[in-house]
Automatic annotation (TrEMBL):
Protein name (Swiss-Prot/TrEMBL): Cytosol non-specific dipeptidase
Transmembrane segments: none
Keyword Transmembrane helix in record: no
Cofactor(s) needed for function: Zn(2+); Co(2+)
Keywords from the UniProt entry: Cobalt, Hydrolase, Metal-binding, Metalloprotease, Protease, Zinc
GO cellular component terms attached to this protein's record: cytosol
Organism: Chlorobaculum parvum (strain DSM 263 / NCIMB 8327) (Chlorobium vibrioforme subsp. thiosulfatophilum)
Pfam family, one: M20_dimer
Family membership: Belongs to the peptidase M20C family.
InterPro entries associated with the record: Peptidase_M20, Peptidase_M20_dimer, Peptidase_M20C
Length: 486
């Protein structure tokens, strides 16, 4: 007998999650989910509003007898990362996610699942809907565009939220309580190129890198997975060195916060060097595959004959691109000296794309230390300067400084120990949680982040462990019932 998503336990949460999978909600295309959530609150007779930044805020009065408890804000984000396998025809702006249950996990067919952060949204909706749960005054804050810049959290206005405690439902390891996160910054190197014509007797080829696991550029950056942009750059450099390769176009990576899984380039070279080119790249591809065998066993490097393009990128600009990508930092830059096993500073070389006379190399920089983030930005700016590119840094957001003396942390440690018979782990996370931004707008908020176990977020391998969702829900219910008085 096949188990459907709404039949899983806790049923209220999974029913809401299934409904979310039926509503397209990639970052930047959240109108449907925004209206759905706001209408949900209105149908319950709860005060519901959509602010100027696209956030939805729903307020629920306290259960009778709990009016004097501290107000709690349940916070989750509406959008999801749209990533799919190369053979998928899924349209994230139109098609529902095809989620299914298998061996204790919920997954999606060929796409991201949206458990990040659909499980958090579903949990908040289930709490709002319940007439039996014990809780004080509640607010549910559903933020917009978290995955593509956290613009919803950044657009929050002061004095809108009333609660004293914020529970961020956007972490991905059950049994762990997060009390700090990294800040981030978008960095882009851009340079212009001119189009050059080709001499006669050239051959065209398409080079394609695919099959990498990718993943979350914060949570998974320490795993040493392959970066499609770095791999493509090695292949192009080898072709340039051996066979006078010329580049017509390149398109690598997709989202700033996803480790790039795929890259495609269109190249040309003298016909009499075609055989050498193919042999050289196959040898290098085998070497790269061996290097990454333990972490990316499904890497594919394909070299196919293609039509000869009308023009190519001028050779000087091509050389500058090769240097820029080779010199750009990628992966872990520094581990934390304060918390074992936690990444302090990293860079994700997320996107390399040529278009209409311009080449952009886009990165997402992360660090829990502001000065280290600035130093990393300076390093990337230096790379840009060396290759004659302009550099820009935008979308910066603050980190969240851990508070080991947090009252909500102490309460949740006690409740977790009582419920599950063991202590939860207390951690900081190398990812951008909205807590840092919200805490900057609302100083004094007591905040914590927790969630179920989600693996491979931001990739088509994303999955959520069903048993952990039940534990997450039970824990949330217990915490809400035990919030202290003001």
């Amino acid at each position: 007998m096949t188990t459907t998503i709404p039949e899983l336990e806790p049923r209220a949460l999974w029913r809401h999650f299934y409904n979310l999978t039926q509503i397209p909600r990639p970052s930047g295309h959240e109108q449907q989910i925004r209206e759905y959530v706001a209408d949900f609150g209105r149908r319950l007779g709860l005060k519901s509003l959509i602010d100027e930044a696209g956030n939805v805020i729903i307020r629920k009065p306290a259960k009778k007898g709990m009016e004097q408890r501290k107000g709690v804000i349940l916070q989750a984000h509406l959008d999801m990362v749209p990533q799919k396998n190369a053979d998928s025809h899924h349209d994230f702006e139109r098609d529902p996610i095809e989620a299914y249950f298998e061996k204790g996990w919920v997954r999606a067919r060929g796409t991201t699942l949206g458990a990040d952060n659909g499980i958090g949204v579903a949990a908040a909706l289930a709490v709002l809907e319940s007439e039996s749960l014990s809780h004080g005054p509640l607010e549910a804050l559903f933020t917009a565009n978290e995955e593509a810049g956290m613009t919803g959290a950044m657009g929050l206005k002061p004095e809108v939220l009333e609660g004293e405690i914020l529970l961020n439902l956007d972490s991905e390891d059950e049994g762990e309580l997060f009390i700090g996160c990294a800040g981030g910054l978008d960095g882009t190197m851009t340079f212009r190129y001119s189009e050059a014509s080709l001499p006669p007797d050239y051959a065209g080829f398409e080079i394609r890198v695919s099959g990498l696991k990718g993943g979350h550029s914060g949570l998974d950056i320490h795993l040493g997975r392959g970066n499609a942009n770095k791999i493509m750059n090695r292949l192009l450099q080898a072709g340039h060195d051996c066979c006078s390769l010329r580049l017509a176009s390149i398109d690598g990576g997709s989202l700033r916060n996803a480790i790039p899984r795929e890259s495609t380039s269109l190249v040309t070279l003298p016909s009499d060097r075609a055989e050498l080119f193919v042999e050289t790249l196959k040898r290098l591809g085998a070497t790269i595959a061996e290097e990454l065998a333990a972490v990316d066993p499904d890497l594919r490097i394909e070299i196919r004959a293609a039509e000869i393009p009308d023009t190519v990128i001028d050779n000087e600009s091509f050389g500058r691109l090769l240097q820029a990508v080779a010199d750009c930092p990628n992966g872990v830059v520094r581990m934390s000296g304060e918390m074992d096993g936690v990444v302090e500073t990293s860079n994700n070389l997320a996107r390399v794309k040529s278009n209409a006379g311009s080449i952009a190399v886009e990165c997402l920089l992360r660090s829990s230390v502001d000065s280290s983030l600035e130093e990393l930005a300076t390093s990337i700016q230096s790379v840009a300067d060396r290759v004659g590119a302009t550099s820009s840094f935008t979308g910066g957001y603050p980190g969240w400084k851990p508070d080991p003396d947090s009252p909500i942390l102490s309460l949740m440690q006690r409740i977790y120990q009582q419920r599950f018979g063991k202590a939860p782990e207390v951690k900081a996370i190398h990812a951008g949680l909205e807590c840092g931004i919200i805490g900057g707008i609302y100083p004094g908020l007591d905040m914590i982040s927790f969630g179920p176990t989600i693996r491979f977020p931001h990739s088509p391998d994303e999955k959520v462990e069903c048993a952990s969702v039940q534990k997450f829900w039970d824990f949330l219910v217990d915490v809400l019932a035990d919030i202290p008085a003001k």
